[in-house]
Amino acid sequence: MLPAAADFLPELQFQTSRSSGPGGQNVNKVESRVELRFRLLESQLLTDEQKQTLQQKLASKLTSEGELLVVAQEDRSQLRNKETALQKFHELLTKALHKPKARKATKPSKGAVRQRLESKKKHGDKKSNRGRVDF
């Protein structure tokens, strides 16, 4: 079970910088871009098994120091970007730790098989009646 996003706060580092994109003069003076850094291997909240799984599944998102890096700069507000980064972080962890349910192989019921064969027979008869008519 994954802890809530708020539980990770002591283990997260936030860094702000100036965002690119629209925003007029605001962009040049306000640091609204938020980088969230999480040291995966040093986390106290995750089990060793979870750390191993995350390291494999999120390998492309980890820095060379083993930090998970999440960036948010969609909004003009630093606070909203921080909330977005937290949300993205939690979704990443949740998605990476999700174990899909094992599929159980099943066989079609006898009634379903019989119905399918009857349908095929009926369709074949319909097509065979479309042949040439001899006088």
Automatic annotation (TrEMBL):
UniProt KW keywords: Hydrolase
Pfam families linked: RF-1
Compositionally skewed regions (Polar residues) per UniProt: 13-29
Domain of life: Bacteria
InterPro entries: Pep_chain_release_fac_I (IPR000352)
Molecular function, one GO term: peptidyl-tRNA hydrolase activity
Region (Disordered): 1-29, 94-135
Basic residues compositional bias, start-end: 96-107
Biased composition (Basic and acidic residues): 126-135
UniProt entry tagged with the keyword Nucleotidyltransferase: no
Domain Prokaryotic-type class I peptide chain release factors as annotated: residue spans: 11-130
SUPFAM superfamilies membership: Peptidyl-tRNA hydrolase domain-like
The EC number(s) this enzyme carries: 3.1.1.29
Protein name: Aminoacyl-tRNA hydrolase
Gene source species: Hymenobacter duratus
Classification of source organism: Bacteria, Pseudomonadati, Bacteroidota, Cytophagia, Cytophagales
